[in-house]
Write a structure and sequence with these properties.
Strand content: 15-25%
Helix content: 25-40%
Structural class: alpha/beta
Distance between the termini: 57 Å
Oligomer: single chain
Number of helices: 10
Radius of gyration: 20 Å
Order of helices and strands: EHEEHEEHEHEHHEHEHEHH
Length: 282
């Protein structure tokens, strides 16, 4: 008997509808029966955009069914890639599957993004996030900014905050006492940074790829394996190649998803944990 997947998309959000329909098509090419709707229901596999439907995720797990999470990608233009994970966790709290030992995907699509580690003086760049975002659920991010800025100041850093553009657009207060804000292009902000500090923003991926030593403070960060995790930690510059190869298999284009290539990649490949090289550069 064919397995049944229930794919859920918010019909008011075009990106969810288009990506979820593509995922449904890819499953059908592999013999799945698929229902696409705006409301979750238990099935062999529940496919959701994001992790806001915690009640549905909990119900699905109690029935023994699988949970698949789709979200924005991590490398390049994030709107043209979608991440595919399992288990119901967001970003690094999810379970990714793929042939992570195969570096050809990284080499073909993303190798140009990786810059050499750079060690130099500069400011500590505090990365802003969007209040209410799934990745910081339950976290008082404004209090985190203030607390972390104070820790960085005590450690001798000149601290600057780059508010998230979406937070600014939505009118959230992004000010932190005595911390100047840095606007404009992210690449320019990273260029002047001696270290980049984020709770769990995907900007951490961009800063690590740009060669800026980075601190991530939540395990949900996709850059967690190749970063420090507190202001008091030593600055680390590990080998990033295994991590980069892993990232390349965490996301797919719409065509790869609808063709069935994505499902062929994730359905039977074992999950391989990414462990950073302990031999950090000096």
């Amino acid at each position: 008997m064919a397995k049944h997947a229930h794919v859920v998309a918010n019909e008011r959000l075009e990106h969810q509808v288009s990506w979820c329909r593509a995922f449904a098509e890819g499953l059908r090419r592999h013999g799945w029966q698929v229902t696409v709707s705006g409301a979750p229901a238990p099935s062999d596999m529940l496919v959701l955009w994001g992790t806001r439907c915690q009640a549905a995720i909990g119900t699905q797990k109690t029935t023994g069914g699988e949970v698949c999470i789709l979200e924005r990608g991590y490398l390049g233009d994030r709107t043209t890639w979608t991440s595919v994970s399992f288990g119901g966790g967001l970003n690094n709290r999810g379970i990714f599957r793929g042939p992570f030992h195969d570096g050809s995907r990284w080499d073909r699509h993303h190798a140009h993004l990786l810059k050499s580690w750079r060690r130099r003086d500069g400011y500590a760049l505090l990365i802003g996030q969007v209040p209410g975002d799934q990745s910081i659920a339950g976290v008082d991010i404004a209090a985190w900014y203030s607390r972390t800025a104070a820790e960085l100041n005590s450690a001798g850093w000149d601290v600057r905050l780059r508010p998230h553009p979406v937070a600014v657009q939505r009118g959230y207060s992004c000010a932190v006492d005595d911390v100047p804000a840095v606007g404009g292009d992210l690449a320019n902000a990273l260029e002047g940074a001696g270290i980049v500090v984020t709770f769990n923003s995907n900007t951490g991926v961009e800063s690590v790829l740009a060669g800026a030593s980075t601190i991530t403070m939540d395990e949900g960060a996709m850059a967690w394996p190749v970063t420090s995790h507190s202001v008091g930690d030593p600055i680390v510059t590990p080998d990033r190649i295994a991590w980069a190869h892993w990232l390349a298999w965490c996301q797919y284009t719409r065509e790869e998803i609808s063709s069935g290539f994505c499902w062929d990649s994730v359905r039977q490949s074992p999950t391989m944990p990414i462990v950073p090289d302990p031999a950090y550069a000096a």
